[in-house]
Structures are given as C-alpha cells and as structure tokens.
C-alpha cells in the first residue's frame, strides 16, 4: 500500500487552526543549511536541489534496482527551521538562518543520498548539491498550529500560540521555529497558503 503522509501522518503535518501539543518522533531528512533571504533566486535553487534528490530516491525502481526495504510513497512536503542571528532585534530577511529539509522514507541510507547526489549532478548547481546532508532529527515536545495566509501574516498565528503557552503554563524554548509548507506557492494565492507552524516547548 502506498504510504501517504497526508493520511498516515496527519497528526504530524496537518494540525487544526488552533494550538495543539505534539511530541514529534525521530525522522530522517535530506537537509540544506544556509543563511539569507527566502525570496531570493538562490534560495529557490536550494529548494529545487532538495526536491530533485528526494524524487531521485522515489523513482529508483524505474531507473535501477529498488533498494532494500523500498515501498511506494508520496514525497514529503518541504519544511524549514528558521531563526535569526544571535543578538538580532528586528526581522531582516537577509539575516535569516535556515535549515530546509524534506523527510525521507524509513529505508533511506547514506548510500542512497550518494546515489541521489550522483543522479542529480546535471540538474542542479554542484555547490548546492554538496550542501545536501542526510540527518536524523528529533524535534520532541512542540506546539503547532495551522496558519492560513501569507508568510508575512504569520506573527498573528504565533501570537495565538504564545497566548496558549501563557494560559497553560508552557514555556517556548527559543525563537527558532519550524514551518511545513502544505501549499504550492506557484498555484495558490497568498491569502490561501497553508503552513504548519511549530516551536519547541516545555512545561513550567
């Protein structure tokens, strides 16, 4: 049976439009880390690199022998950790520090990352390809909420999440946060974009 994250992992990716607590387990991702404006052409190229590598793994059975443990699945959505330079007091998008990522299926291995890098060598810039890493990340206890609207309107949703923390004796652990992009920005109007917002918490 095809593994579809929108069905099997609904609680992880598709929260409601109200704050909810989730304990996010360890998962494996292709990641690229960097700094800069997410509206820049260079950032778009990094996203292209992540998707190219992810689809290279998914399409393996049509190109070469399927890897051990392979099963059919829907490619996972783009995600990203975002934070500011230490000491930053205002939001300057050029100073944003990010780790963008796409989750990989359980059968992923370092050897499959090497295969993906080789497969996409003619499709992406070599310096971007070399930024690709395979990482296991455990996010742990988090608060998350669905944001509908433009990225610039996210502060209103974060304010609701902060209010929830205050009312429930919860502490936000850092200004870093996670975004999961559920909509295609090229096909969906800005005011209809769906993004899961998440940050790490602990109880007081």
Automatic annotation (TrEMBL):
Residues 18-201 form the GyrI-like small molecule binding domain. It holds the Pfam family GyrI-like. It comes from the Bacteria. InterPro entries: GyrI-like, GyrI-like_CCH_Lin2189-like, Reg_factor_effector_dom_sf. This is GyrI-like small molecule binding domain-containing protein. The lineage of its organism: Bacteria, Bacillati, Bacillota, Bacilli, Bacillales.
């Amino acid at each position: 049976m095809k593994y579809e994250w929108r069905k099997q992992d609904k609680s992880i990716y598709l929260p409601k439009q109200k704050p909810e607590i989730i304990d996010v387990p360890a998962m494996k991702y292709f990641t690229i880390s960097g700094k800069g404006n997410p509206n820049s052409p260079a950032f778009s190229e990094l996203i292209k690199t992540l998707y190219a590598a992810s689809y290279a793994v998914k399409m393996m059975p049509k190109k070469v022998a399927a890897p051990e443990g392979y099963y059919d699945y829907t490619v996972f959505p783009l995600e990203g950790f975002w934070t500011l330079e230490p000491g930053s007091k205002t939001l300057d998008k050029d100073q944003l520090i990010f780790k963008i990522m796409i989750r990989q299926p359980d059968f992923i291995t370092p050897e499959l990352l090497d295969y993906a890098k080789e497969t996409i060598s003619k499709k992406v810039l070599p310096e971007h390809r070399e930024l690709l890493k395979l990482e296991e990340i455990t996010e742990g206890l988090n608060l998350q909420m669905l944001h509908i609207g433009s990225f610039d309107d996210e502060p209103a949703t974060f304010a609701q999440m902060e209010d929830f923390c205050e009312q429930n004796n919860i502490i936000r652990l850092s200004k870093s946060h996670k975004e999961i992009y559920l909509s295609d920005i090229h096909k969906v109007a800005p005011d209809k974009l769906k993004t899961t917002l998440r940050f790490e918490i602990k109880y007081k």
